[in-house]
Amino acid sequence: MAAEKKAFVLRIQPETLKELERWAQEEFRSVNGQIEFLLNDALRKRKKRPKDTPDNGPEMPMDS
């Protein structure tokens, strides 16, 4: 039996949601599936990092 998934509310900028929708469509996923894929990928990469690496990487410039 598959593990039960926990639902939660996500507040997100409309522009970010539009980009996620486009990305999900390109990869034949639902938006929910795309978010879950990205989170799992990030967690997998985080587990592979050396312990002395900071949690937050270099600052990325934000578009204004």
TrEMBL record:
Residue span of region Disordered: 42-64
GO biological process, one term: regulation of DNA-templated transcription
Residue ranges occupied by any CopG-like ribbon-helix-helix domain in the UniProt entry: 17-47
Coiled-coil regions, chain positions: none
Keyword DNA-binding appears in the UniProt entry: yes
Organism domain of life: Bacteria
Keyword match DNA-binding: yes
Matching SUPFAM superfamilies: Ribbon-helix-helix
InterPro entries, per database record: Arc_rbn_hlx_hlx (IPR013321), RHH_5 (IPR012869), Ribbon_hlx_hlx (IPR010985)
Gene Ontology terms, MF aspect: DNA binding
Keywords: DNA-binding
Full protein name: Arc family DNA-binding protein
The organism's taxonomic lineage, starting at the top: Bacteria, Pseudomonadati, Bacteroidota, Cytophagia, Cytophagales
